[in-house]
Amino acid sequence: MEKNVELNQGDNLTQEEKVQKAIDIIKSKESTFYFMVSETPNPAASVYEIYFHANVVKNLGYNVKMLTVDPEYKIPFYIDSELTDMEHISSETVKLQVTPSDVVVIPEIMSFAMEQTKNLPCLRVVLLQSIDYALQGLQHGVNWSSQFGISKVITTSNMLKNAFEEYYGKGIYDIKTYKMGIPDYFSYDEEKDPLKQPIISIVGRNANELHKLPNYSMQNILNMLG
């Protein structure tokens, strides 16, 4: 992506003038919001959430574009057409021109995109949906702020916010939470799909070794495994 990005540095303005100009553009809703999205082999609530969030911004009157990773990206069939009715552009096939008043929203799983966009003059925000993916693609001892220059984060729950701050520390990021509903077909129904019980087999070199094992209950075995 980086080699195809053209940076629009603006006129020869002072830093204060550039900031004021960017604020004026945002207030006039001339800013463009780019939501990065990647194609998944199976229906994913995380992808639905990105489109839903993009439409919230679109309905506020801003210009919104979906920035795809794959040039052959196909719009998900499981998302309502009114949520996908916006321009889709590929980061590999277009020259992205951004201004300081534009915003790029990057899911936490796309650490490669954080790296590729770190020289853009626009505001970049991470969409935190999974604490597991948040830790991928990072070197030891660094974080999104030090490695990619990102300090703005939006997340889906206080639980995720607290878990993220517990790992990285408080005060490093400006984190905002929001609640968003997802379709019923992404929710878990215990009656229709009960939790699977694990099957644990213990193998020894001979039967005598197995007889040495105490008679553990299933809960005790699970506790042993952590």
Q: Can you walk through the features of this model?
A:
- This protein is an alpha/beta fold and 226 residues long.
- Mean pLDDT is 76; it is low at 1-10.
- The chain has a single domain (2-186), classed as Rossmann fold.
- β8, α6 and β9 (174-177) form a beta-alpha-beta unit.
- It has a seven-stranded parallel β-sheet with strand order 4-3-2-6-7-8-9.
- It is 30% helix and 17% strand.
End-to-end separation: 42 Å
Largest sheet, spatial ordering of strands: 4-3-2-6-7-8-9
Query: How is the main sheet built?
Result: 7 strands, parallel
Shape from CA axes?
globular
- Just give the CATH class: Alpha Beta
The total tally of domains equals 1
Instruction: Indicate the multimeric state.
Output: single chain
CATH architecture: 3-Layer(aba) Sandwich
Quote the CATH topology.
Rossmann fold
Helix % is 25-40%
Count all strands and give the number: 9
Low-confidence segments, given as residue ranges, are 1-10
Provide the succession of SSEs.
EHEHEEEEHEHHEHEHH
> Tally the helices: what do you get?
8
Radius of gyration: 23 Å
Strand content: 15-25%
Return the average pLDDT rounded to an integer: 76
Q: What would you call the structural class?
A: alpha/beta
